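Researcher: Next sequence.
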Amino acid sequence: MIHDDRRAFGTLMLKLADVYEKSMSEVVLEAYFEALEDYELEFIEPAIQYLIRTAKWFPKPVEIREVASQFRGEVRRKALPQAQRALGERALTVDEVKAFLAELRARPEYAATLAEIPQKGVEALHADAERLEAIGARDMTDEKRKALEQFCRYLDRGRAQA
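Model: Next structure:
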């Protein structure tokens, strides 16, 4: 959220407080804003609406964050092209990853940004997978989704700088 969102956020929080018959001081409101400021208001609003319908108690910031993350994740999943979406849904073969990166490198708008990404060999990728498995990361879906989101943010930053 940005500073201009404070009024709308305050209105949402006061509505939430009224529903749960809680008082909302400026200090508490500011604490909630700070805890949630890395989320866009477009995800906070439906999260609060959802919690009004489903939560038994006045939600803590972490509960609002969890629901807002679900809304944000759903919006991002719908926005991803089919080829990128596959990264989050199933394991890809090395050849599929190479083909995907080759396709991205062929696009003029991505070529300069992708040239800066270090390329790992198959052995290094297997070593990374073994390290993740050693720490208990059995289901790679979340890790792949996070990596894809980070990659997309990297591309967005590159486009913004260009």
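Model: The mean pLDDT is 78. DSSP finds nine helices and no strands in the chain.
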